[in-house]
Amino acid sequence: MTQIWCNGDWLDPLDFPASLLDRGSMLGLGLFETILAIDGVPVFAEQHLARLRIGCERLGWQITLPDLEEIIAELLAKNGLGVGRARIRLTLTAGSGPVDDLSLGTSRLLWMVAQAVTDAPKDIWVNLAPWRRNEHSPLAGLKCASYAENLVARDDARRLGYQETLFLNTAGQLCEAATANLFIVKNGVLLTPSLESGCLPGITRAVVLDLANRYGIASQECVLTPADLQSASEIFLTSSIRGLESVSRFGEQAYGDIMVADRLRQLWKVETERKS
Fold it and tell me: Which residues contact 21 (CB under 8 A, 6 or more apart)?
């Protein structure tokens, strides 16, 4: 039987104690993390929890997190996910309270659920989203529960025959994909939009930049434009669950070179197995 963890208790999903006035479900006022687990062990959990704490600080939320890494291991065991790959979704909602007050309510929820995942495709097609990210938004860089914009953009891409979509920000600079961070290889250098673009400070993004630095792959965080995509030799996306996905087509342009992405994918795989 599936079990979830919520506010320190183990529950059947049917007993989920959400308030009907929880601003997380009503207004999207919440934060979440999606953590990969391999053979019952969460990967880069410390980095995910650190990002969650930063998000809480930005929203003015004072909360003491329990030893979630130990709870995650128990969550996986209770749900028969001790072997293979799994996704842990950790969510913090604001609970009930006035709509003009961001403070955590007494009915706030911190909860986790886990499910098995299959291997992601190694290459995908992407297009350019018709909507733009607001890099000046107070929510820029936060992994917020208000995720509908991402889903609408990705669904629009799917309807056009693509698996992902890329956002520009209001300055016309490349920002990120709907559910991943963006990397390109140009003139032999690994490039990714800087955090000032409004992109999420992705955990796998940071790991890839660290791996590039450690293994002598020239890399840089910088301003990128759509013209850089046209002149890139490689494009790939990164996310905690899917890892590194090479882009074989952007719009009508095809890409065949995956040398840098393949090397980093292997390094990432070794790193995740070491962490687990």
Answer: 96, 107
Contact between 253 and 127 under an 8 Å Cβ cutoff? The reply is no
Q: What is the C-alpha separation between 214 and 119, in angstroms, rounded? A: 26
For the segment 67-119, what is each residue's pLDDT rounded down to a tens digit? 888 899 999 999 999 999 999 999 999 999 999 999 999 899 999 999 999 88
pLDDT tens readout for residues 200-235: 999 999 999 999 999 999 999 999 999 999 999 999
Residue entry with tokens 């938004």: 137
List the domains of the chain with CATH numbers: 4-116 (3.30.470.10), 123-275 (3.20.10.10)
**pTM of the shown model:** 0.95
* Nearest C-alpha neighbor of 179 from the set 196, 202, 195: 202
- Are 114 and 79 in contact by the 8 Å Cβ rule? The answer is yes
Q: Where are the beta strands (DSSP E) in the chain?
A: 4-6, 9-11, 30-38, 41-42, 85-93, 109-116, 123-133, 164-169, 174-177, 181-186, 189-193, 219-222, 234-239, 243-250, 253-254
Instruction: Give the long-range contacts of residues 134-137, CB within 8 A, separation 24 or more.
Output: 134/169, 134/170, 134/198, 135/169, 135/170, 135/171, 135/175, 135/196, 135/197, 135/198, 136/170, 136/198, 137/198
User: Tell me: the pLDDT tens digits for 150-199?
Assistant: 999 999 999 999 999 999 999 999 999 999 999 999 999 999 999 999 99
User: Position of tokens 């929820």?
Assistant: 109
